[in-house]
Amino acid sequence: MEEGSHFMGRSWNHIQNFYRKKGSHLVKFVLPSKYLRYYPPVYILRNPIEERVKYTWKKGFQVAVISFYFHSLDQIITKVGRRKFIRCREIVKARLQKAVDQIFPSDQIVCLHDQYNDGVFLLIRVDEHTYSTVDLAEKLSLVKMAMEQKRYRLLDNKNLMLEYGYVFLQPDRYSLSECMLRAHLQAMAMAEKQDKLQYHQLLFTMNQIIAFKQITLLAQPIIDVSNGGIKAWELLTRGPKQSQMESPLQLFSIAKQTNTLFDLEMIILEKAFQLIYQCQMKEAVFINFTPTTLNEVELLEEVQALMRKYPEINPKNIAIEITEQDSTDGLMQFEENIASLRNLGFQIAVDDTGAGYASLHTISRIMPDIIKIDRSVIKDIDTSLVKEKMLQGLLMIANETGSVVVAEGIEKQEEVHILSKHKVDMAQGYFYAKPKLLHPIT
User: Fold this and answer.
1) Cβ(145)–Cβ(164) under 8 Å?
2) What is the pLDDT of residue 188?
3) Phi, psi at 11, each rounded to 5°
4) Nearest alpha-carbon partner for 156 in 69, 78, 68, 97
5) What span, in angstroms and rounded, lies between the C-alpha atoms of 315 and 291?
6) What is the pLDDT of residues 264-287, one digit of tens each?
7) 100, 131, 305, 317: which sits with the fewest CB atoms below 10 Å from its CB?
8) What pLDDT does 153 receive?
9) What is the pLDDT of residue 84?
């Protein structure tokens, strides 16, 4: 008999049901070529976890999703390496399986799995008429006690630390796979609540700051060393007043940890454009950017959108100041974005030069228009011959790259005298002026 001929005259549903009954995880329907235009080859990938859930529902039970979160596993991954971590995790999963088998009746367990790789989750059959969440919580507390016994230790003799959370599957609005993922994430969030509550609060705060643009820009003048006139302004960011985010150090640190840094810096750039326009600023303006943001693929699109929104702003009067918060190594888009910003007319400045290796490495990569010398070099330079020699070396580098030099952190007249002696172009610091609010011209 020709292969597939026993399906002749059969419906497509009949063919599918025939192979489903065979229990294969992956099935290819093979039909003679003359039938392919009616019944093309189809692959069906079966999910045994979803099938168990559907079977449980069909029997009239609810399904509880319990996520287990292990503090200790997260702590040791950086110490032991990925391979040992995976082996350790498999050992823990086996112990968890043993504890669950001891406490829950076998007919109540749907499955124990680590499908989503951020924890282990347990699916339990629940009779909503006879079972209560108190019963479930009591059994889970017994699992926790069993897993945290002293004989269960990880590498480096660390005890297991287990938290759990649970929710019930609600498939009304989503597909079963979406429903299971959502339930797992919700349960995991509850399991991690002791560790993650503060994180989510901070993320909420950052999102509020970004959504309502709750930042203030202060301006500090940059002075022409030779004649004392204002040559440019550096715009400095402050978060909401009288909040923990008011400090720029705290603000940018939290933004980085909550993956909101790019959005924050785009808000800062827009605020800077607004300030330049409202105050009709004629001098150059320095705006800080982290290497992380300058590496973003969406950067040029966002900058160009702001330029269209504020056509009065001349990018030639704006210096993009690269801070030394992150290394530029491994940033694939960084140099390309710098070149594109230059093509748009922006100047490029490197901040904190002399404070470490990173800024000197950045200078060699991008050949900046402006080099800003860190205050650690300038502070008490009038009493340190070594610092004066460092200044001379940095001025030689600037001369080779054709860069203008700005000295930061000037606090006394004697430091200004050394800068004048070596013909430094510009300077800024509390000796000249503290950062202040600029008011729009009405």
Assistant:
1) no
2) 66
3) -80, 160
4) 78
5) 19
6) 999 999 999 999 999 999 999 999
7) 305
8) 55
9) 64
Q: Do residues 409 and 379 touch, judged by C-beta distance below 8 A?
A: yes
Which regions of the chain carry the CATH code 3.20.20.450?
201-427
User: What pLDDT is recorded for position 2?
Assistant: 38
Query: What are the φ and ψ backbone dihedral angles of 71, each rounded to 5 degrees?
Result: -60, -45
Q: 7: helix, coil or strand?
A: helix
Residue 174 DSSP symbol: S
Domain with CATH 3.30.70.270 in the chain: 48-194
State the DSSP H helix or E strand holding residue 77, giving kind and residue range, or none if neither. Answer: helix 71-80
Count CB neighbours of 16 within 10 A.
Answer: 14
How many Å separate Cα 197 from the centre of its chain?
Answer: 17
Task: Give the span between the Cα atoms of 76 and 85, in whole angstroms.
Answer: 7
Give the contacts of 401 (CB within 8 A, at least 6 positions apart).
Answer: 363, 367, 368, 371
Question: What does the alpha-carbon distance between residue 39 and residue 104 come to, in Å, rounded to a whole number?
Answer: 46
- How far is Cα 327 from Cα 361, in angstroms, rounded to an integer? 9
- d(CA 100, CA 140) in angstroms, rounded, equals 9
332: its two tokens = 């694939």
Distance CA 352, CA 359 (A): 7
Give the bridge partners for 64, in sequence order. Answer: 124, 168
Distance CA 100, CA 107 (A): 12
Angle between helix 261-278 and helix 299-309 axes, rounded to 10 deg: 20
- Contact, 147 vs 96, CB < 8 A? yes
Whole-angstrom distance, CA of residue 265 vs CA of residue 252? 9
Partner residues linked to 68 by β-bridges: 120, 164
Q: Under CATH, domain 201-427 is a member of which superfamily?
A: EAL domain (3.20.20.450)
CA 4 to chain CA mean position, Å: 53
Residues facing 370 on adjacent strands = 349, 404
Tell me which residues of the chain have a pLDDT lower than 70: 1-46, 71-86, 115-119, 128-135, 150-160, 170-174, 182-199, 325-327, 356-358
48-194: CATH architecture: 2-Layer Sandwich (3.30)
Which residues, other chains included, contact 128 with Cβ-Cβ below 8 Å and sequence gap of 6+?
61, 62
Dihedral over Cα of 284, 290, 295, 296: its sign: negative
C-beta of residue 373 within 8 angstroms of C-beta of residue 361? no
Whole-angstrom distance, CA of residue 52 vs CA of residue 48: 6
Stated pTM of the model: 0.59
Amino acid 368 reads: P
